[in-house]
């Protein structure tokens, strides 16, 4: 991959790319000097990319946009910067914060964290649904679709809010946590139909939102009764989605509203079970590092 960046999102993102590899290295680094060295190299490369202006760095230039996106998302044809946790800069931001907070690498990652956190904050828009972290930053002059981002882990305000909260802790920047609280409240104030999370799953469903609220409220610098109330309500609604007749207890709901039986982690019942199990642990569970929430 080029030192100046200009990448397809799958080159660096959490799900398919270098960020996901590094998330696992953070666990191995405490046991292996080789893993620790490799983690430092990955974090240095992410730092180098972040310093590059568009269309370099973590921007996806026009020639790296996937063919399917040309048809499904024509606004991306000229290139974009992905803002999500799963496929965009909120993933490397969360990762860098966790590495900085745990001391897993002999690097000062605060410049990287600051650059990504400020970019994320600067990208927040005021939509007809309130403050919103869009799916993408687009080149000047490209029309952005008028739709709120889903209220999820993979994209949208909740995942971005957790990333900014971690950044606030890593860099002693309480203003970032204030921004995180504001965008989280904005998302939770939307009606159910505007949230775009009909499924119980972790990636883009209720379980992921609940997990983020769980971690956010536990780590908050001050108690927020409204967020705790939202957490309890969302948890009750998730438990109501349990189906004893389903093979795995919870049924995935696809974008067409069709129920499916999926045992998987990101888009199935295993992720729901993991989130529920985390309520019984005072410390973050190992799987949480894979999704860079703790």
What would you note in describing this structure?
The protein has 294 residues and is mainly α. Helix content is 49%, strand content 6%. Strands 1-2-5 form a three-stranded antiparallel sheet, with no helix packed on it. A hairpin with a 5-residue loop joins strand 6 (252-253) and strand 7 (259-260). The chain starts with 8 loop residues before the first helix and ends with a helix.
Features:
metal-binding; two-stranded antiparallel ribbon; 294 residues; zinc; 13 helices; Lanthionine synthetase C family protein; mainly alpha; three-stranded antiparallel sheet; LANC-like
Number of strands: 7
Helix share, percent:
40-55%
Q: Main sheet?
A: 3 strands, antiparallel
- Sheet/helix structural class: mainly alpha
The fraction of residues in strands falls at 5-15%
Query: What general outline do the C-alpha atoms trace?
Result: globular
What series of H and E elements makes up the topology? Answer: HHHEHEHHEEEHHHHHEEHH
Alpha plus pi helix count: 13
Cα end-to-end separation = 28 Å
Rg of Cα set: 18 Å
Spatial strand order of the main sheet: 1-2-5
* Uncertain stretches: none
Average pLDDT, rounded to a whole number, is 95
How do you describe this structure in short?
With 294 residues, the protein is mainly α. It has helices at 9-12, 18-28, 33-50, 67-72, 90-102, 110-122, 157-171, 174-188, 192-195, 206-219, 225-240, 269-278, 287-290; strands at residues 60-61, 79-82, 125-127, 130-132, 136-137, 252-253, 259-260.
